[in-house]
C-alpha cells in the first residue's frame, strides 16, 4: 500500500470501488437483459466444448426449469412469452452442435427469425423440469423450418409445440443443407437414411396462412 494513503483513505477507496461496481451492474441490468446474454453465452460454450456433435436431422434435447423469473401474474406457472424465449436457447444449442450456424456464416450468410407459431397444451408449473426437443422438419432455398416441443420428462407429455421459420440471408439454404448432410460432414450421409424430409401437412397449411397474410399486407388490408 502506498504509505501516503492513510487507513481512512484506503477504506474510502474500497467504498468507492464497491459502489462504482454495484452501480455499473445495476446500470447494465437496467439497460441490457444481462441474464439473457449470459445464459446464451453459457449455452454456446456448453454446446461447442462439452456436447457431442450431431447430424443436422437429429432431434436434439435441452433441459430447463421454470423459475420464479419465468412465471406469470398468478405466480404458479411459466408465462406465455417465456416459451419463445426458451426456444432461443434451444435453437442456439442446435445451431452449434449441428454446425448449422458456422456453415451459414462461412458462406457469408446470416439468419433471423421469420415467423413462429406456438400451441399451448398444458402449463409448466413453477420449479418443474422440462425438456425442449428441437429438429429441422423442412427447408427451401431461403428458409429453415424447425419444430420445438416442450416435454415433461416424467410422462413424456408434450406441453407445448412450436414451429419456427428461420430466414437465411445471402446464401442458398439448399447448398448449406446439402453440405451438412454430405458424407464428409456426417459418416454415412444419405446412405444412412438421411434425406430431405417431406413437408408436413401442418407446416404446409401454416406456410399457406403466412402467404395469405403477406398478400393482405401488400394489398394494404
UniProtKB/TrEMBL annotation:
Stored SUPFAM superfamilies: Thioesterase/thiol ester dehydrase-isomerase
InterPro entries from the UniProt entry: HotDog_dom_sf, THEM6_lcsJ_thioesterase
Entry keyword set: Membrane, Transmembrane, Transmembrane helix
Spans through the membrane: 12-32
Domain of life: Eukaryota
Keyword ATP-binding carried by entry: no
Record PANTHER family: PROTEIN THEM6, PTHR12475
Similarity section: Belongs to the THEM6 family.
Protein's UniProt name: Protein THEM6
Biological source species: Apolygus lucorum
Amino acid at each position: 500500500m502506498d504509505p501516503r494513503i492513510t487507513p481512512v483513505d484506503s477504506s474510502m477507496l474500497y467504498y468507492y470501488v464497491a459502489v462504482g461496481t454495484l452501480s455499473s451492474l445495476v446500470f447494465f441490468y437496467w439497460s441490457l437483459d444481462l441474464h439473457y446474454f449470459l445464459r446464451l453465452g453459457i449455452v454456446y460454450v456448453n454446446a461447442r466444448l462439452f456436447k457431442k456433435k450431431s447430424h443436422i436431422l437429429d432431434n436434439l434435447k435441452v433441459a430447463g426449469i421454470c423459475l420464479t423469473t419465468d412465471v406469470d401474474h398468478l405466480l404458479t406457472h411459466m408465462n406465455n412469452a417465456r416459451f419463445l424465449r426458451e426456444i432461443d436457447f434451444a435453437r442456439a444449442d442446435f445451431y452449434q452442435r449441428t454446425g448449422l450456424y458456422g456453415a451459414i456464416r462461412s458462406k457469408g450468410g446470416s439468419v433471423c427469425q421469420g415467423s413462429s407459431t406456438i400451441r399451448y397444451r398444458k402449463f409448466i408449473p413453477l420449479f418443474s423440469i422440462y425438456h425442449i426437443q428441437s429438429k429441422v422438419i423442412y427447408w427451401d432455398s431461403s428458409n429453415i423450418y424447425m419444430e420445438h416441443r416442450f416435454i415433461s420428462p416424467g410422462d413424456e407429455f408434450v406441453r407445448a409445440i412450436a414451429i419456427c421459420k428461420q430466414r437465411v440471408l445471402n446464401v442458398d439454404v439448399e447448398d448449406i443443407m446439402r453440405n451438412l448432410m454430405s458424407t464428409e460432414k456426417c459418416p454415412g450421409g444419405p446412405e444412412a437414411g438421411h434425406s430431405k424430409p417431406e413437408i408436413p401437412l401442418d407446416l404446409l397449411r401454416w406456410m399457406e396462412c403466412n402467404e395469405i397474410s403477406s398478400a393482405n399486407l401488400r394489398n394494404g388490408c
